[in-house]
Specification:
451 residues; Outer membrane efflux proteins (OEP); 2 domains; 4-stranded antiparallel sheet; two-stranded antiparallel sheet; 11 helices; elongated
Length: 451
Amino acid sequence: MTKLKFLFLLLILGMFCVTTVPITAQENSVSSQASLSLQDCIQIALQNKADVRIARDQMRIAGAQRQAAWGAYLPSLSFSLRGSQTEQGVGRRFFSGIEFTAPASRREYYSSGLSLNQPLFTGGRLLNAKKYADLNYVQAQVGYEATREQVILDVTNAYFEVLRSREFVRVYEQTLESSEAQVELVQERYNLGAVAQSDVFKAQTRAGNDRINLLQQQNTLSLRKRNLNLVMGRDPSAAVVLPDFNYAPPEIPDMEQAKQQALQANRDLAQYQLDVQKSRANLAIARSNLLPSLNAFMGYDRTGFSMQDLYKDFDLNWSYSFGVQVSVPIFNNFQNRTRVDTRRLENSIARQRYQDARLAIEMQAENLIQQLETYREIIALNEINLNSAEEDLRLARERYNIGQATLLDVLDAQAALTNARRILVYTKFDAKTQEAQLEALLGELINKAQE
């Protein structure tokens, strides 16, 4: 019996170890999961987002087109080879008024040629085509950086939204904890006969509403985490663990310096400026079609009635030609003139869009700086309001305990404290979002994200 009891105890111990090891390992895995900093999320998004890869491929396409534009200056060399066979049946023929019967015949004919063509003058068409290709490549580079910057801005906004929702959850957790404590206090006072039962119901109702608010904020937090994963190009259900947030007041630049920096470094404005330059190149290309063009050509041909004539006896069956060709456009149904007028109007449109973009960027920089200055003052006032709301709740509870205030006064003070906390959290994160938008406008967001 002793051995049986001993074996039975070992069996129970083994079952306990088997069932507890996975749980312990899972707890260690969750607790050891590394949190994601803002830079970590940005790097993940830059690696995963299809928009970044597409912009990179578009830049490579523009680079290939740039190389092709260089090749237009070089001569074109082509080789041709042709072979044919002609068969003719028996038929009547006439020669000098005499009719005769021609027998059936078959003839083969072969030819090969090597031609070289070199443009000498195109009225600036090749030069401006090369300029257009260069500008297009630069614009693709700017577009690639603009895409990366937009991804960084989207990740930054989504990251702050998660942090904001998490802070809201903490605010409502504190509120619920305070409401539940208030319920216990009112219940004790009701048991002592110091308050009416209606106070218990009011306190319980407020605690229930606070619990509903907490559940809603928790759902919002889950939604914000899924959105952050989506912005990073990850599985929306992937775990998201973020570090604690320490608010730092935004750095507000000088207004005029910020405007000048935005005009020089803003990538959207650079895109509009490149559109103006490309439209000028297109206009020059259209005008070149109105000018004469000059090409030099050279050709070498071999012909024969058998394939061997093409690669034997090189002193026979050959011809050689070279020369210069001048092409002068005279009339083509006004197509060239229409093309010039169209390109001129496109250039005018591009310049107007660029001027409008300059004004919009200056206004946006001014608005963002004013908003950040306003937020700095609002945050300071909200911190004072928070301290005042905390003190009002403390006093309301003390007065309620000694019978000089009603429970409604306590609940109103508690609601005011929750609102003060919520407004302060919202304002801080709104200020951080505006700061990120200003950095993107000034062209600093990519550099700061890579620090």
